[in-house]
Specification:
Chains A, B: This is ROK family transcriptional regulator. Chains A, B: Residues 29-75 form the HTH marR-type domain. Chains A, B: InterPro entries: ATPase_NBD, HTH_MarR-typ, ROK, WH-like_DNA-bd_sf, WH_DNA-bd_sf. The structure is a homodimer of 407-residue chains. Chain A has 407 residues and is of the alpha/beta class. Chain A is built from 14 helices and 15 strands. In chain A, the strands form 4 sheets. In chain A, strands 6-5-4-7-8 form a 5-stranded mixed sheet. In chain A, strands 11-10-9-14-15 form a 5-stranded mixed sheet, sandwiched between helices. In chain A, strands 1-3-2 form a 3-stranded antiparallel sheet. Chains A and B meet through helix 1, helix 2, strand 10, strand 12 and helix 11 of A and helix 1, helix 2, strand 10, strand 12 and helix 11 of B. The first copy, chain A, binds a DNA duplex (30 and 30 nucleotides) through helix 1 and helix 3.
DNA sequence: TCTTTTAAGTCAATTGTCTTGACTTATTTG
DNA sequence: CAAATAAGTCAAGACAATTGACTTAAAAGA
């Protein structure tokens, strides 16, 4: 009698879940607003003064917040503002790219403390993982040398690599990294480091970074278009990263566009036209070139005819993708970021003007329809490191629910 | 000293929030899985047997669940399954369309008990609201005649109308209903009925209906393309409807597409080609024709050359939009539903084959990439009615948080 | 200067919900 | 007929937020 029917249900919650949520709410409020007094926190979170006092006391004991000098601001007892302690938590971020791997260590407020990278020789994941574990170990010990207590306060290891994930075969596709995807990477990293590990695609990581320390800070609805070796979008919806059913939401680099009617109804994927890979091809830069970023920067500063051509094509496709994303998501803003030089990002945005008409063109906008975000090779690694911080400290539905592994 | 700085923060929660969540979790589990015993509920929700017992007892007192005959299924004491009581709650749904308004009453499980419609004469919202309030009143008393206790168990009034909302001017645009949007409709309806009122656009409502009783039942990631007089998409992300910053997420009817290179780089909005409005133009049916649905059904059953032409154009644009939505959202499935006859929906889906390649084409799919959903003129009104039920009984983050109006 | 008003923050008791562990009930298995 | 198994109850306990009175510290007004 195989009556072990799968019953689907949302988890319930309990006192512990509520309490954990309230702690997160406090940290989040301090992150968003800067230092706040207990009374202010109570008003903002709709909790009672007493509750806030208890939680703040606990957070202070845990080294996550600290008091500032009290400030007089009118009648009544002066308030004692509390602020986040940057040294309250640390996280590691790992970016695995096609030819290079990068590791970053950040603290609770997203300040970068360590960054190291290594070239990834061809040879697939078996060899690669060993190199990567060494890199992580090296970053970790550098961090511990600088801040002995950091090890104890590490909340996790975020991993970012190019998507899409879990697709069928296609091992030779240079745009993906299929061999890495069928490898038990997360398990290897988890056992190798003893840390909690979570995976995002690189665009999602870039969005996570934008939300922690970049242009999306404090925004609940933002789309980050990430221009790297490939192209993707990180979706921040309702204040959280949206990943879709299989973690592939936002893989707009693979989107086709209807082209000339008749003969060739659909043109190549967006990232064949708008990505550093396509630019490298034009500039005849090897994708494995360690000085790729600098070369592109120089090329963008003084664009020759070919670069202008690329820029025109890329910005035209992006211009239209921006229109679509605005229409589909109704976001507060769209951010163009990347592992690309700021010059290039800025020029692309320039070339996209005027933006296509859309609902986003309303007159009452608070934010620009499109704006530049983080633009450097470390953006994805930073986002990878931001993920464990967000997972540990941001208020989110899943954090309230009882998990499989004890409350 | 204007020190009334706005402090942004997520609300905290308390015992009451946790308890409310757990009640919702129970109702949701019974809705998804059918009748379940207390022990099964405890396992599924990770709550203790005792907690489940208490909550079930309370829900039974409130008339939301009831026990079935106990069933023996192996060793041990027989289980007593509990099921939702359809008569446990009721909700009203109002659809305001361009030329007609519809009201539906549903019960807790989404069964339709009353449906009434009325033609909306031109004359704008002032006159319209009076007619609509009469319609609601009429439906309400029909409901009360059939089920005297329904009035006491009404959880709200859902309203659906064509978007987009809150756009600048453009009063003459026949595709929108601008004059209705600058009118304090919700306030009028709330005071006129004494019920909680909430607004969605029609595509969002259709998606809400699909989730309560249609093809999206139990799905957490689904996109509903709604083909009505206009065209839009309802986005179900993480099990909840996503509305974007201004409630306009999913307004894909307004999306442009890159067309022939050169002269006309961008073609008309999607809904100018794929909507009942465009079909009506071709068939020379007045959009206000009360027998519009039947006429379209007949036209779709025996398509003439013009209809075939329309079908070809519409399905081609939709085919490509499906590709985009799959790429952007990575959903479990896409549902094509509408206030359109099922024949038409089916034919459109047929014409869209073969679907464009995308990440969704993986071999391990559990659900079809695209499938038909509700296809009748009452779909939106049903979705409007489904919204208050979902708001009152579905587990969601916002339901846990302390609200502005007391816990 | 002195009193009143206002606001921040604490104290101690209370409340409400989930949890714990032992117990009862009812059925199948051997 | 005893042992095993599972559903469900009982009563006490744990825990976090709440409540209302209180203390502290400043500004405002007389």
């Amino acid at each position: 009698m195989n009556d072990a029917r799968v019953i689907r249900a949302t988890s319930g919650t309990n006192l512990g879940g509520a309490s954990a949520h309230n702690r997160r709410v406090m940290v989040d409020a301090l992150r968003l607003n800067g230092a706040l007094s207990r009374a202010e926190l109570a008003r903002a979170t709709r909790l009672t003064k007493q509750t806030v006092s208890n939680i703040i006391e606990e957070l202070e004991r845990d080294g996550l917040v600290r008091s500032q000098a009290s400030v007089r601001k009118g009648r009544g007892q002066p308030a004692t503002p509390y602020e986040l302690v940057p040294e309250g938590a640390y996280a590691l971020g790992l970016q695995i790219d096609r030819y290079v791997s990068r590791v970053i260590a950040v603290n609770l407020v997203g300040e970068v403390l360590v960054q190291k990278s290594v070239e990834l020789p061809p040879g697939g994941p078996e060899k690669g993982v060993r190199i990567i574990l060494d890199l992580i170990e090296s970053a970790r010990s550098t961090l511990s040398d600088a801040v002995p207590e950091a090890e104890r306060r590490l909340v996790g290891l975020g991993v970012a690599m190019p998507g899409p994930f879990g697709i069928d075969g296609d091992d030779d596709n240079q745009w993906m990294m299929a061999s890495w995807q069928n490898y038990p990477l997360l398990e290897m990293l988890a056992t190798g480091t003893g840390l909690e590990v979570a995976l995002q695609n690189d665009a999602a990581a870039a969005a996570t970074a934008e939300r922690l320390v970049g242009s999306a800070h404090g925004l609940d609805h933002a789309i980050c278009i990430y221009l790297g070796y490939g192209l993707g979008a990180g979706l921040i919806l309702n204040g959280e990263l949206y990943s879709g059913q299989n973690g592939n939401a936002g893989e707009i680099g693979m989107s086709l566009a209807p082209g000339e009617a008749g003969a060739r109804p659909f043109v190549a994927p967006l990232e064949h036209q708008a990505s550093l890979a396509s630019l490298c091809k034009i500039l005849d830069i090897a994708p494995s070139d360690p000085r790729l970023f600098d070369k592109i920067e120089r090329a963008a500063e003084k664009p020759n005819e070919q670069v202008e051509e690329w820029m025109k094509g890329a910005s035209e496709r992006l211009r239209w993708m921006v229109h679509l994303l605005e229409t589909v998501f109704d976001p507060q803003t769209i951010i163009l970021c990347g592992g690309a030089p700021r010059v290039l990002i800025d020029q692309l945005i320039d070339h996209m003007q005027p933006l296509l008409p859309s609902l986003a063109a309303r007159s009452s906008r608070a934010l620009p329809r499109i704006q530049p975000g983080l633009a450097n090779p470390w953006a994805v690694a930073l986002g990878a490191a931001a993920e464990p911080i967000a997972r540990a400290f941001d208020p989110r539905f899943s954090a309230i629910l009882k998990s499989r592994f004890g409350a």
